[in-house]
User: Fold Transcriptional regulator from Pseudobacillus wudalianchiensis.
Amino acid sequence: MSIQIFILSRLMKENTYPYKLKKQLSEPIPLDQLSGLTESKLYYHFDSLAKQGLIEPVEIIKEEHRPDKQVFQITAKGREELPKKIYKLFESAETISDMVIGLANLKYVDREKTLSILGKKLKDFTARWEQIMNFEKPIQQNKGNENLNKFLGGYFSSKADHTIYWLEETIKQIQEGKI
Assistant:
């Protein structure tokens, strides 16, 4: 979904073709390599978006001794679907890193709706974590597993604290208009 949001958001700015996007992603930082985005994946998502009617070809650039380049534009349906895809991304994201492409494209969504989604995510995560922490109290610990239990407890507690902190920070940054 992130790749499709990326493509649609780029097409909101200008018509383009897959190879150009791939090249833009690789310079100056190789974001394509860091994200595992191959040229074939990019072409696959362009094709998928076209089949959904969210983008359409508008031009074919022909160059001698080079493959033809099919230039795409976003459709009215694509403009309508982009915010929905971004909201869905926020709803399904498990970590802040899953939200990066959505955060980079907040200008295409209603900030209050985004804050509502993230607020619910924070509330649900916090409630789930508190419920898990309450299970720990009545459980009798096996003497042979004390170190493992302590290690895992520390790991999951730290991870939960980290998730809560960054969800709160993301909400704060959006509220303050910093992102």
In short: The helical segments are 2-13, 18-26, 31-35, 39-51, 76-92, 100-103, 111-136, 146-175. The mean pLDDT is 89.
